[in-house]
Amino acid sequence: METYQSFITKPDINKCSDFIHYDLKRAALAITIGLDQSIDGVLSDLVVTFSHIVGFTSFDEHWHPMDYQYPETLPRLTNGSCYPFLLVKNSYWFKHLPDSEILISGEPKNFRFISNLNTLDVLSHDEPKFKWVKSESLISKKFNSNDDYYFYLQLGAEDGVQNCNEIGCDHFHILQSRKCIKHHFKMIKGYEPPEQVS
Ligand SMILES: [Zn+2]
Questions:
Q1: Residue 155: Cβ within 10 Å count
Q2: Which of 131, 144, 167, 192 is the most exposed place for a label (fewest CB within 10 A)?
C-alpha cells in the first residue's frame, strides 16, 4: 500500500496549494507551489528545486491514477485539505510506469506535489532544495530566461559573515560572492532579480 510523509517540517504549511507550476531545464526541475502563505509578513510561494530528476508527470487533478485510491493516511492540513507536497513510499504510480520510461538503476524517490488544479509526480535520487519567493506573480516568469532563473535558484542564502560590498546595502553576502543575492545576480546578469523573501 502507498504511504506518505511530508518532507519538510519548517515552516508549517497552513494552506493547500492553488497550483503547481514547473520549469524544466535539461534534467533539473524547479517547482513553484502556489501557497500565498505569509512568511515574515510577505505572501509567499515555495520553490522546490531538484538538480537532477529521472522523470516527472503532471496530471490534471481528476486524471491522477491514484485519486480514487488515496488512503485515509494521506496527510491533511488542519482545514482538511491535502498537504501540498509528499514523499510517496511504495508508489502505485511508479510501479505502473511502462518499463520504457524508466531507464535507470536503483529505485528513485517519488515526490508528489498536490494542488487544487493539478498533481505533479517527480522521480529523483536527489534531495530537493527549498526557497520561499514573493508570490505576487509567478516569479519564474520575471526572469529574462530559464538560464537566469536557474542561476538565481542556485545562489546560496545570504548567511555570510559580512555585509554585501555594495555601498549602502545592508544584506549579508552569499558564500560564493562578496555580494548579496540581488547585487551578485545583477553583476553577472545585468539586471536585478525579482525581490526574494528568504
Ligand atoms: Zn547587496
A1: 21
A2: 167
